[in-house]
Amino acid sequence: MDINHLTANSLSELQLKVQDHSAFIDVLRKELSKVIIGQQGMLDRLLLALLTNGHILLEGVPGLAKTLAIKSLSEAVDVDFNRIQFTPDLLPSDITGTMIFQQQKGIFEVKKGPVFSNFVLADEINRAPAKVQAALLQAMQERTVTIGEHVFHLPEPFLVMATQNPIEQEGTYPLPEAQVDRFMLKVVITYPKYEEERLIMRMNTIGEWPKIKPCVSIEDIFNARTIVKEIYMDEKIEQYILDLVFATRHPDKYRLSELNNYISYGASPRASISLAMGARANAFLNKRAYVIPEDVKTVVLDVLRHRIGLTFEAEAEQITSEQIVEKIIQRIDVP
């Protein structure tokens, strides 16, 4: 990788800053490992979202510690956490809040909803209608909520982790493209390994459940976010990211004409931004002051899998967005 744009001194200084400000990551991982067995990929993606001020969508069957993960993270950072169970009868005001008439005072007062937390778990988000899902749009994108004539800023840091069950599709409402695109990452969670599940079984049946202690300050998170933006990214890496994204829009130009019949629409510019930020954050997690191609490869599937529209032909032939992304990764030259 060419890093000639940086002087040796400036790169060394940046490396020292990364080493200094990333020290809390090891402490945080150690604390979370008390209650989260395995699922390292899910925890790393949560940290990526936290470091980049993004949101995360998790897909997996029940019982894979999705709720436990974000609840434990909120306890370790010592911030407010709220869980919203999405159901078909949920109303937008159940999320954002509403105006309540106070009879004694004779006035309407604002009652804030559960979205006014640092970490929000939108559990089984696809069980609620589109109007309710859209209630999260302004909160996720603008970090504000409008109740009546009042506009309120949400607390910082603000992280939404939504879950959806891939098995039960009856009575669910697929997330609109505009909603899905606002999630920086979509992570598919798999079952734990044999020995990991043995430990999980033991902890839940014979042992006392460990308590998570606050070990990271909000200031640590904000400082880390600043450093992540300073992580050096060479122009060749930028070009690699853009090629990966543009290949989803114009497969012909990248010798991928066989994908034309499978892609109805490609990834949006948010994909390029998320790939760049995710790669920088992954370098930070690995205590590196510069991005390498492996950082991009680590996050590319989670960034692109929910941003590619599939045609009816792809669905008929059971072609998934993951398979399309894998083909693109294989074809695009690595710098």
Task: Write a concise keyword list for the protein shown above.
five-stranded parallel beta sheet; 335 residues; 2 domains; 11 strands; single chain; two-stranded antiparallel ribbon; globular; Helicase, Ruva Protein, domain 3; alpha/beta; 14 helices; Rossmann fold
Detail the topology: elements first, then pairings:
Blueprint: H1 8-21, H2 23-32, H3 40-52, E1 56-59, H4 66-77, E2 81-85, H5 93-96, E3 97-102, E4 107-112, E5 119-123, H6 130-142, E6 144-147, E7 150-153, E8 159-164, H7 177-180, E9 185-188, H8 194-205, H9 218-230, H10 235-249, E10 263-265, H11 269-285, H12 293-304, E11 309-310, H13 312-316, H14 321-331
Parallel strand pairs: 1-8, 1-9, 2-5, 5-8
Antiparallel strand pairs: 3-4, 6-7, 10-11
Helix pairs in contact: 1-9, 3-11, 9-11, 10-11, 10-12, 11-12, 12-14
Spell out the helices and strands N to C: HHHEHEHEEEHEEEHEHHHEHHEHH
Q: Give the class from helix and strand content and strand pairing.
A: alpha/beta
Question: Which sequence of strands runs across the widest sheet?
Answer: 2-5-8-1-9
Query: Helix count?
Result: 14
What's the CATH topology name of the largest domain?
Answer: Rossmann fold
Rg (C-alpha, Å): 21 Å
The CATH architecture classification of the largest domain is 3-Layer(aba) Sandwich
Q: Report how far the terminal alpha carbons are from each other.
A: 7 Å
Mind telling me the CATH superfamily name of the largest domain?
P-loop containing nucleotide triphosphate hydrolases
Low-confidence stretches: none
Roughly what is the average pLDDT, rounded to an integer? Answer: 87
Tell me how many strands there are: 11
Which CATH class of the largest domain is shown?
A: Alpha Beta
Strand content: 5-15%
- What fraction, in percent, of the residue positions are helical? 40-55%
